[in-house]
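Worked example (supplementary).
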Amino acid sequence: MTSLLTINTRMAVESIRANKSRSLLTILGIVVGVASVILTISLGEGVRRQVAETNQSENSQLTVIRSGKIAERTQDGTIQNINYLAGLGINTLTHQDYESIKQLPGTSAVVPLATVSGSVANFEKETYQQAVVLATTSQLPIILDQQIAYGDFFDDTTSRNVAIIGKRVAEELYQENVPLGKLITIRGQDFIVGGVFDEFQRNPFSQVTDLNKAVFIAYPVAQALLKDNPNIYQITVVADKTADPQVLTTALNEQLLKNHGGQEDFSVLSASEVEQIAKGTIAVATSFVAGIATISLIVGGIGIMNIMFVSVTERTREIGVRKSLGATNRQIYSQFLIEATALSVVGGIFGIIAALSLSLLIRITTDLQPAITWQTVVLAVLVSAIVGIVFGTVPAIKAARKDPIESLRYE
Amino acid sequence: MPVVIELKEVSKLYGFGNATTVALDEVSLKVDKGEFVAIMGPSGSGKSSLLNVIGLLDRPTHGTYTLSKRVVSRLRPNRLARARRDHIGFIFQSFNLLPKLTALENVALPLAYKGVPQTRRLKQAGAALERVGLADREYYYPKALSGGQAQRVAIARALVNNPDLIIADEPTGNLDTLSSKVVMELLAELHSTGSTILMVTHNPELTRYATRVLYMLDGSIVYDEATKLGEVPARARMGDTPIPSSDEDAQLDGVSALMHAVPEKLAPARKRIAKPKKRTKRAKKVSSQKVKA
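After joint prediction of all chains, the assembly is encoded as:
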């Protein structure tokens, strides 16, 4: 039977080649479907890798506190039932939390990250819409493991209006790399650019903002600027070298519960848990988008089914001849199934090629780094083969069941 | 001589209830190995149904069909396909070569369905092509072949499996005289080397290649006679003009009319049949209804 398989496969490829334009249109759906599935998966994989890189360099002494109850904890302390959307859009952490955590024993540094609303402009009153103003304290570069390229980060005692800016802000707002000492207007108040960050290769602890587009000001300065307390979305606690992280976590939880009147509307997470949640968030987002992309695969499959029906009808006489030569129903069935599968797999291969070139384009034009693994490629080929089999079955059955006498008479 | 085909009271009915059509009416037939049987008869006489049943494309409604000592009348479709592959070779009026395969691949196709490995398959196909004198056309596509050549490729395909029986359905119907002659000589040669051939034809001249001529009418074999090779039997000269049986039920409007044209040689047959010379419209109606039923 293997000999028949090869002859059928060869004939399928030949018939695809003989009807080039028709075959091409037919497989277009599969090409688009496979390409979009691969691209979404590879984008997700790329982001996942960037997150993974982050935490290899990260200090395990870090504990992160965020708004919202992101996950539940089991008895032994591992997180489960992660609610990826819990932390979005709400700010339950308060200035009081920050102040009280600072008082806790066993902490060597407490770094808040708070958003300051308001526009950012340069000395020529040109605003930079994408900028985000963040209020924080002096240890931020340490916990982010990020170097200042030019200038210095502010210290905790400062009350001066100094801003440290991300690389992109420098490029966009000043068209230069070192705008040190230049004027920057935040919420209508004048600040001096005191430093420029190295380019952030990733956005640690933050899926919300691109830190390259952020403007950092001192927390007390932000309080003065807002005449209120800024919205804290995250507090990072660096444990003392001597402190037991387990004890500290418990202490943090107790303190916050007390502050929040017993409501657990916050999450105390270790660095590895943050990574786990970040990866989980990416996985959910990726599979969601990949799921949508799969719909185009189904559409492509229907296209193949349609053309196979046409092909079966057109080749009725051929089916009759083959049957008269002794082809069994099963052999006719497999012939048409192989043809549908070949169509689909060829589409899949074109889809892979399209995805590879598109991902290259994305790498060149954006900061994203889509990663196409060989598993993704194998998966794409398998999926397209399955689409061919699934949508080729019904036409193949129709071909196999044709009556030889009627078929031979078919003009 | 061993018997290749044995039909016992084989009937083929289409439709059901009042719409039932009798395509084959209790046909019994025995064909020995090495016979060259020509089947004649007007369209609708049941020739095709007979060929379909004998060629295992169709199953008879009633009766038994024994092909090479094996009862095949009740086989399931897949076993039928396998029996067809192993015992029957088809030659069609319109050649029916697959356009996307070369001559060699076309000939090798029945072997492919049998599961013969490719090298051996192509070797055997090459030998079959050589047998029909087309060894130099192995890699031609059917489009590049003349009608006669295409039919010879089809003949090679029919005999590549060494079938017990070759069925040719008007093999020269689409060919010019010269090509027809080449094809018929080829069939005659196959016959002389022991092949059993069953051929439907409208051309009486072709019966000179046959050893036996069958005439069909209304689903029955009305005449069955042995002929000498090279001779065209007188009845065959009438072409599709059917010679009705003595069975009075088989009388038709057309038949009695036709009888006037029958040569005087056939007078005995004519006397027996042509009783009512003029028939009323009513009688005609009745008799035609009878036939339909």
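Two points are worth noting when inspecting this output. Residues 3-240 of chain B form a domain with the Rossmann fold fold (CATH 3.40.50.300). The two ends of chain B are 39 Å apart (CA to CA).
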